[in-house]
Specification:
4% of the residues lie in helices and 46% in strands. By secondary structure, the chain is mainly beta. The radius of gyration is 13 Å and the shape is globular.
Length: 103
């Protein structure tokens, strides 16, 4: 797998409204911060399903997520940069499901 050569196409399924720091605000909502990458596929008062597409080399602004599940539609390498400046690289494969805590 070549790093950042494939677009990231994923579905994020998460609980609504709660993040590690309390209620998620519109300023932390990735759909509002990066609407070019996210599409709301389904939503109710408990669950929100997002479609996420990011092309190689594209970056998005820092945001938060409540606990969530990601299903990847293709292989990808992800790089996350945290508020303290540390980075983390993760490789995923098509069909992989990842469970994540609030971020």
């Amino acid at each position: 797998m070549r790093q950042f050569q494939l677009a990231i196409v994923a579905v994020l399924i998460g609980a609504m409204g709660v993040s590690s720091g309390g209620a998620q605000t519109a300023t932390q909502d990735p759909v509002k911060l990066s609407p070019q990458y996210y599409r709301v596929r389904a939503e109710n008062d408990r669950v929100r399903v997002l479609e996420y597409r990011l092309k190689p080399g594209e970056k998005e602004v820092m945001h938060s997520h409540p606990s969530y599940v990601i299903y990847f539609f293709g292989d990808a390498t992800l790089r996350a940069t945290f508020p303290d400046g540390k980075t983390s690289d993760t490789s995923v494969t098509q069909g992989e499901v990842v469970l994540r805590d609030p971020l």
